[in-house]
């Protein structure tokens, strides 16, 4: 592919970058388009061709294979494509004819609800709110005041969704699915012995009433109050009154039982305990919340969300909205200070016995031990950002992904199987597809970069080929032409029908290349805003890597398990810094 075609691919991907970067224009006072109005006109999620998916899979596993391993896998794939795979593919096509999204239910169940390991670190995503970057630096004595203002903006966002005044997202002129935004509020995951469930009570105004209460957790105790009074959302002074009451109830008093710790447990254990904890009054039943805003004593904020109901972009969009509203008002409330008469928060009291208290203690200990093993580093690279990369006609996200591949290659002497999130929201209820950045082209470029005798021209050509391949694969994944979800569908059909598991899914290279959730590098672009997040590694010997790209900086959070002798998140970030400098230097001197 020549440079003109590479530039064309780059421009095609710019539409996605614009979606991530232009969230400031996401609402209007008199919108011409309603938030969910295009849901029924979105195209169904397509099923890729079997031949195409298997061919792409073979190319994807090549960087991890010896010649002998590759020949064995190629034979396995050939047998699958000519035999069992054909039958499974036909069954998948039949399923797709009766569903607008053949993957939706499968994905929710297999990726989230049926998983039995603890959700808190293995599934949930979380991170800081961005407010400390401008008007809200760490400050003592302002926690409740800031929380009331932040909560008010969050409630305004809830109201935007209720009244459908949040503009539908688009990539260029392509409308994107907005269904996940229905899951941000009024949603919880309820534990089950073999499978969890998602319960959602959100409704738009045209659909009817929906819950409007807020639950506040403080020192292991729970309080609830209605955030709407006489049809109007409580103002920051009114919210401050409610929060002050909660704090006064907890000050100088023993901490509560800390029932929330149970949500960090292994899912089946939590489900069995919940049957004891949650019997009685059904109005106080509580599950794993879709969105938790964390307020700290120094006036800073964080968040933690269950990943099952939605992807990170929902939280990013919401947090960026709040961030920009705070920035526009300098983090201050400039409205009425009047506090209307209203009921005070009501404490939610759980009836627990010694057995449940023992389970809570066990959950706390398990969670503490696990978090102590997690290494988390979060740094801002400020030498350059999106502006400098785009000046060289390179896609910023691809730039970071290839820099990460080079960083891992430098540190470990080999490439790491890598997952990058590709969104499929142009399809009905689309969520994600896997994009695999570890390509043969990336492998060759990394090898060339570390060859002392390699010329700048050889490095430039190898870099360009790696960029082109990455951009091509990302565009395919976003357009329903990836292969990982397709293979998952074939796997699940075989499993549901009790058929022998095809050799393709037990072959050595399937797991070695990242298949089955075994990617060494679990990565995602959080966007081009001020919001960042973090995620734990997919595998024990791997890394979690979230990043955001600003005009003049790249901010990344990198995680690894301390108990793994192979990984070091700090070292990986420092290698990333070196790689970023080397790449920009190469792009500059070669005048790409």
Question: How would you describe the overall organization of this protein?
Answer:
- It is a single chain.
- The protein is of the alpha+beta class.
- It is built from 18 helices and 19 strands.
- The strands form 6 sheets. A 6-stranded mixed beta sheet has the order 14-19-18-17-15-16, sandwiched between helices.
- Helix 1 packs across helix 15 and helix 14 packs antiparallel against helix 15.
Please provide a brief summary of the model.
This protein is an alpha+beta fold and 592 residues long. The chain has helices at 3-21, 50-61, 67-82, 84-97, 104-113, 119-122, 143-162, 236-250, 267-277, 312-328, 354-373, 386-391, 396-412, 440-449, 456-478, 484-496, 508-512, 569-589, and strands at residues 125-128, 170-171, 174-175, 187-190, 197-200, 213-218, 221-226, 228-229, 232-233, 288-289, 292-295, 301-305, 346-348, 374-381, 418-423, 432-435, 521-527, 543-549, 554-561. Keywords: Acyltransferase, Fatty acid metabolism, Lipid metabolism, Transferase, Transport.
Major sheet: order of its strands? 14-19-18-17-15-16
DSSP helix fraction: 40-55%
Number of strands: 19
Number of helices: 18
What can be said about the biggest beta sheet? 6 strands, mixed
Overall mean pLDDT: 90
Overall body shape: globular
Structural class: alpha+beta
State Rg: 25 Å
- Low confidence ranges: 1-25, 274-287
**Strand coverage percent:** 5-15%
Distance between the termini: 14 Å
Pathway: Lipid metabolism; fatty acid beta-oxidation
Family: Belongs to the carnitine/choline acetyltransferase family.
Keywords: Acyltransferase, Fatty acid metabolism, Lipid metabolism, Transferase, Transport
InterPro entries: Carn_acyl_trans (IPR000542), Carn_acyl_trans_N (IPR042572), CAT-like_dom_sf (IPR023213), Cho/carn_acyl_trans (IPR039551), Cho/carn_acyl_trans_2 (IPR042231)
């Amino acid at each position: 592919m020549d440079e003109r075609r590479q530039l064309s691919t780059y421009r095609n991907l710019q539409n996605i970058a614009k979606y991530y970067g232009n969230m400031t224009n996401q609402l209007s006072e008199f919108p011409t388009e309603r938030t969910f109005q295009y849901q029924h006109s979105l195209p169904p999620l397509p099923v890729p061709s079997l031949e195409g998916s298997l061919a792409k899979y073979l190319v994807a596993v090549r960087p991890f294979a010896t010649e002998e391993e590759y020949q064995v896998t190629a034979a396995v794939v050939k047998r699958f494509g000519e035999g069992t795979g054909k039958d499974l593919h036909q069954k998948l096509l039949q399923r797709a004819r009766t569903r607008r999204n053949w993957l939706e239910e499968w994905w929710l169940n297999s990726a989230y609800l049926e998983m039995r390991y603890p959700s808190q670190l293995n599934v949930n995503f979380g991170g800081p709110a961005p407010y400390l970057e401008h008007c809200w630096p760490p400050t003592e004595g302002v926690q409740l005041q800031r929380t009331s203002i932040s909560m008010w903006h969050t409630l305004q966002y809830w109201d935007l969704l209720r009244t459908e005044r949040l503009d539908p997202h688009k990539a260029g002129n392509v409308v994107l699915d907005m269904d996940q935004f229905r899951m941000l509020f009024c949603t919880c995951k309820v534990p089950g012995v073999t499978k969890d469930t998602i319960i959602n009570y959100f409704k738009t105004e045209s659909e009817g009433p929906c819950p409007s209460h807020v639950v506040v957790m403080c020192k292991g105790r729970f309080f609830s109050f209605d955030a709407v009074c006489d049809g109007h959302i409580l103002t920051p002074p009114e919210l401050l009154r409610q929060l002050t009451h909660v704090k006064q109830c907890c000050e100088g008093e023993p901490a509560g039982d800390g029932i929330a710790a149970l949500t960090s447990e292994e899912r089946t254990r939590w489900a069995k305990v919940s049957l004891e904890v949650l019997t009685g009054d059904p109005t106080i039943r509580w599950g794993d919340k879709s969105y938790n805003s964390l307020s700290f004593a120094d006036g800073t904020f964080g968040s933690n969300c269950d990943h099952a109901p939605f992807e990170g972009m929902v939280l990013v969009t919401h947090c960026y909205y709040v961030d920009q509203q705070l920035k526009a008002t300098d983090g201050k409330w400039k409205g009425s200070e009047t506090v209307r008469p209203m009921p005070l928060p009501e404490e939610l009291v759980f009836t627990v016995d010694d057995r449940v208290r023992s389970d809570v203690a066990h959950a706390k200990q398990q969670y503490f031990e696990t978090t102590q093993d997690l290494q988390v580093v979060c740094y801002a690279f400020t030498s350059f950002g999106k502006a400098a990369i785009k000046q060289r006609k390179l896609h910023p996200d691809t730039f970071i992904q290839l820099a990460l591949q080079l960083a891992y290659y430098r540190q470990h002497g080999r490439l790491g199987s890598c997952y990058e999130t590709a969104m499929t929201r142009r399809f009905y209820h689309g969520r994600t597809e896997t994009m695999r950045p570890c390509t043969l082209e990336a492998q060759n470029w990394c090898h060339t970069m570390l060859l002392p005798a390699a010329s700048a021209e050889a490095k430039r050509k190898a870099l360009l080929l790696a960029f082109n391949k990455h951009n091509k694969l990302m565009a395919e994944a976003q357009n329903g032409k990836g292969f990982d979800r397709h293979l998952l569908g074939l796997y699940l059909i075989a499993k549901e029908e009790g058929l022998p598991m095809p050799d393709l899914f037990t072959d050595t290279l399937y797991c070695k290349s990242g298949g089955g959730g075994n990617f060494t590098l679990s990565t995602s672009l959080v966007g081009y805003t001020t919001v960042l997040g973090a995620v734990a590694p997919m595998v024990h010997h791997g890394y979690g890597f979230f990043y955001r790209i600003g005009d003049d900086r790249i901010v990344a959070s990198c995680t690894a398990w301390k108990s793994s002798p192979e990984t070091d998140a700090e070292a990986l970030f420092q290698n990333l810094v070196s790689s970023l400098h080397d790449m920009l230097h190469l792009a500059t001197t070669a005048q790409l």
